[in-house]
């Protein structure tokens, strides 16, 4: 199995039910929850596009048709906006459809993130690819994905993104045991543990939702038995790759120290909306004084 081309494909798993946001997600995909004035999933697709990944495969499930509709053209709406001379809204509507070629496949059974990635095997083929989780928003001003792609090209294996968290919170994440690589800004991953007990965690480095994977991961996922939650865990497959030698093996990591929001968590979702809105030129100047006044009265 060989691959030496620049990564051009992205896989975005988006089949989750979004139960933490019920009843809002009873009839609407959680990925369509608005962050200011565009759905969370659009930020993720835009991040992939910015990194040069114009071929996007979205892994969906039942009740996710709104995702396809959002990234599709709406000729009547576009014609109406153009006739009104509302070119700014027209630009914003067309922005979603111009991000790249977006394909869709259903994950028929909810068997975990590893299984969702495995669903992409036929589309990805024999080349490295990126995986972006729709719940994780990375601030567009902070570089991550392009750095990970560079590291993957340099090391030849797979690359994950890590972030330091408070040690008391590590049991909510996959956790990495790492070793520094002399002269490099990335680290070598020795092992991974999915949601360890605080006392058993090898570090406070949490796995966040960005991966650049060698296609060897598909072979490993096919042999990976269900793990935590009776699901096929991507973490387990990466643990195997980290311990292997040979082509496509080995796992390295980029430690991200920028701004990240977990839109699958209610508090972090609200923080994302407020943070991004406060920095908008059209909203921030009125929002910030109101926020200061609101907080001062609490």
From TrEMBL:
Sorted UniProt keywords: Nucleotidyltransferase, Transferase
Residue ranges constituting the Nucleotidyl transferase domain according to the UniProt record: 9-274
Entry keyword annotation includes Ion transport: no
Swiss-Prot/TrEMBL catalytic activity: alpha-D-glucose 1-phosphate + UTP + H(+) = UDP-alpha-D-glucose + diphosphate
GO MF term list: nucleotidyltransferase activity
EC number: 2.7.7.9
InterPro entries: GalU_uridylyltTrfase_bac/arc, NTP_transferase_dom, Nucleotide-diphossugar_trans
Protein family according to the UniProt entry: Belongs to the UDPGP type 2 family.
The protein's name: UTP--glucose-1-phosphate uridylyltransferase
Lineage of origin: Bacteria, Bacillati, Actinomycetota, Actinomycetes, Micrococcales
Gene (UniProt): galU
């Amino acid at each position: 199995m060989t691959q030496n081309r620049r990564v051009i494909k992205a896989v975005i798993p988006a089949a989750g039910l979004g139960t933490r946001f019920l009843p809002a997600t009873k009839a609407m995909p959680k990925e369509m929850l608005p962050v200011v004035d565009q759905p969370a999933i659009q930020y993720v697709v835009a991040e992939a596009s910015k990194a040069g990944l114009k071929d996007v495969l979205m892994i969906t499930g039942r009740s996710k048709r709104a995702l396809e509709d959002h990234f599709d053209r709406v000729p009547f709406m576009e014609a109406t906006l153009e006739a009104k001379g509302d070119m700014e809204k027209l630009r914003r509507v067309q922005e979603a459809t111009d991000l790249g070629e977006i394909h869709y496949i259903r994950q028929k059974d909810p068997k975990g993130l590893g299984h969702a990635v495995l669903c992409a095997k036929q589309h990805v083929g024999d080349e490295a690819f990126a995986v972006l989780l729709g719940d994780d928003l990375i601030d567009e001003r902070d570089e991550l994905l392009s750095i990970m792609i560079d590291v993957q090209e340099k090391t030849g294996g797979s690359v994950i993104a890590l972030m330091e968290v408070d040690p008391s919170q590590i049991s909510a994440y996959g956790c990495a045991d790492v070793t520094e690589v002399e002269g490099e800004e990335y680290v070598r991953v020795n092992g991974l543990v999915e949601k360890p007990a605080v006392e058993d965690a090898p570090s406070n480095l949490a796995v966040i939702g960005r991966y650049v994977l060698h296609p060897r991961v598909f072979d490993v996922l096919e042999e990976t038995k269900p793990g935590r939650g009776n699901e096929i865990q991507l973490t387990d497959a990466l643990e195997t790759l980290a311990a292997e030698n040979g082509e496509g093996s080995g796992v390295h990591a980029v430690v991200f120290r920028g701004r990240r929001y977990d839109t699958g968590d209610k508090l972090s979702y609200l923080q994302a909306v407020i943070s991004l809105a406060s920095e908008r030129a059209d909203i921030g100047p009125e929002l910030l004084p109101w926020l200061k006044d609101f907080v001062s009265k609490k």
